[in-house]
């Protein structure tokens, strides 16, 4: 972490240096551009002044000079004394003197000397008037022009101030010979040069302002860049700090994971998509006898040998390969091998390892259940023995109840009293209902539950066979569900009581198509049991809670044992409904 932060700081300092150097170079280039621009402006001004002066001279030359009034500042040019008609007098008596281009240019130059405007000077190396004598710079410029240069420009100092000085040659034309033929000039020759001096003081002030503005702009951009770099540094530093924290957390998590995997009581191994072992925890080493180095890189079949499984030796049947192929979790009991060749029974869970929706391998965890299987076999044998014993008990109870039912039937026939006969008949029916339940339990594979449809069919079929009064059709509609023995015992006695009462009291000899319908259905956790007939219904003022009502108190007590509720009424006959939760 410290090394990475040090490297980031070093890179940040390097970026600051590069940024500062880049801005310095850009500022220097901008400074040069401003300075050169000032020179270009001065050169343009000088060229404009030269062009203007040259136009004046051409105009003067084209007219052969101009006449101006003689004054103190403009006296006849002594160097034109050889020119005919140098001085003339007008009809009004006004004295005029000839002013050639050189004289005109010299007067303009003298007027500009006392100001800071652009100054021009006509000069030559062959002089008539010593006023036109070239200075040091002009001598150098004339030499360049005579050497073939079209113009000469440079910065020079005049009276302690900087000027941009510019000179171009002026060429002898036909009009020049009027005054200068005596000097031996010919048309087309260089007579001299016109120098233009542009003061740089004002331009330097403008240049300084532009330099200051450019400097402030570059400083601002440089400062903004430093701020961006500072923000970037802080963000990168924060990201690296967070990354380091996450790295530490990840390392802690990996250590915790390793500790957990090492401390768990289950053997855990990881395999890749080809089924090759890539991870084992210490428990695997303890159970199998293999070391970690012996297992890594080997196929998992070294531990899970298909030839040791009950389903055969086909590798396609291996639950680990199936998990890798379809990505489904599997929990099974398998046989694993040890290094010494012995085998152990294990409970094993295979879970797929997925990445981006694709199975990359699987995690296999298992533990030894050899002792559990032995205990399971012992319990299974014990349960088989108990089941045999219970079947024998139910068989004997059923036989005893049938014997009791037979005794009650014999006693009923020998009673000689209708009231006694009815009481014994009801007792016989109730005993037979319990006997049929034990018979169903005896025949059932599960000794704790009984199929309702099978039991009620036997119960109602027995009641059909023992019917001795009016023939009644008994119909049944029972869902094929199973209930505990205690619940079915109560339900059987309730149905026996209700159907018996309907047979005895609901119909007369004149009743057409007497019918009793029994139904049993479930709605979620609620069981609904209904007995309905098409007889004469309950009498007026019928009270189910009365102990004197058709022997129904036993039904009420049985409903209470079920923790249920009962309702009854008349609707084309009597109906009685019992509901309870399972």
TrEMBL record:
It is an enzyme of class 2 (transferase). It catalyses: ATP + protein L-histidine = ADP + protein N-phospho-L-histidine. The keyword Membrane applies. Keywords: ATP-binding, Kinase, Membrane, Nucleotide-binding, Phosphoprotein, Transferase, Transmembrane, Transmembrane helix, Virulence. Residues 329-381 form the PAC domain. It comes from the Bacteria. Residues 253-310 form the PAS domain. The chain crosses the membrane at residues 12-32, 211-233. GO terms for molecular function: ATP binding; protein histidine kinase activity. Its EC number is 2.7.13.3. NCBIfam families: sensory_box (TIGR00229). This is histidine kinase. It comes from Geovibrio thiophilus.
